Amino acid sequence: MSRWRCHAALAIVGAVFGCASSRDAATHAGTNAQPTGSASVASVSSAGPGAPRSEDDAAERTVARALKYVSALRELDALGPVKGRIISRDEMVKRVEHSLDTEVPPAVVSASGEILFALGTVPASYDYRSGLLSVMRSELLGFYEPHEKTMFLGGDLHGQELDATLWHELVHALQDQHYGLEKLLGWTDDAGDWQGAVHALAEGDATSAMVDGLFAEKGMHAPDLPDSMMDLQGALSAGSALQVPPIVKRSVVAPYIDGLAFVNALRRRGGWPAVAAAWQRLPTSTEQILHLEKYDANEAPEPLAALAPSVLGPSHVAYSDVYGEETLRILFEEWMPARAAREAASGWAGDRVTTFSEGALTGVAWHIRYDNEAAALAALHAFARGALAKEDQLLDDRGRLSEFVSAGDAERATRAGQVCRERHTRGPFAVLRRGRDLAVTLGPYRRSAAGAASAADCKAALSWVAALLTQPKPAF
Prior knowledge:
Number of domains: 2
Structural class: alpha+beta
Shape: globular
């Protein structure tokens, strides 16, 4: 539930995909296309760590040809060369692991995994960091490294797979040259939703240009294709990523799909110059990415005050951030059909999420503000469907809850404007609405070698959510 380098969504794994093309994404996106020949090369020879210089020379030439093609495709001049290097999958994963350990505060990685657990979306045994690295070993094809200004390529790429990887990642190189991508998307405290919006713009820009290249011989461009087709391609790419929890799979896809829809909408009304203008006036929230009219109106998020811990729980702030509408939608899709999740997440105006910890004890608080009371009520019902879901409920063969809590049951359970469910391992899940504000608390719970166990009850949880909505209102 955090972001890293080129990603800002619900999980750090998506950040790595944000800076690297996945094998299935590249393959499925071009299922009905033929390589253009403009930048295509037959193959990149397999290489281990410390590839021979001749292979790096070949990579340099391949990247140079592709950069020239991508510059014309994207209508953005290359301001300098991009280096090319061939490395093995193992070396790619080592680089990712090093970046993860040095660029992201360890407390953020830990807190991200705890929030996923507290929400009931991953089991207690899920190892967040190890899971991320396993996905990278399976999915990583190549990536552009802004710090080194280098395109790293896997040694087993060829044909259309190589083309798609190069085109996508070299758009990131052009973004870096013109807009300072490394500075925009390097880890920054308390900037989750804003960086999520910038990341979606970056991925939508790169994906739109890549699709142009893949369909060039058919005379088609990305804005000509229906958004529903792009949704299908994203689902295909996310479905193969090992045993990744469904919420993480959706977070991997979201910046590509949401960003692509945003960029294509800009291109339909003003071509690539409209996209260039968006880089000069960046979206300030994922809400603006999801609702172009709110970007046009420059509707800014409302800042919220820092959150107070439970009087009976841990008090140390381990992590605090703004999650945004895109994260809400991805979460709600865990508990209800996708269309209902989109509707329940819309109307977001601002939020603040905080993880508190003390030794083995963890608790999570979330304050969300909506544009109006009707939107807040819809979100209350959505959270109630999560709170009322059976703890550790079995998943179906698609990795989804085998049975959603019905909308009617959620509405009946929240007639008093609140709901709470006590959970044996994760602690109570409490939600309270007052006007257009919603407070959610998860836990506290205590970790041990035997697993996790609740450390509170609903009486304490309802007292905590009430306190969150009565505390002073200055901005964080």
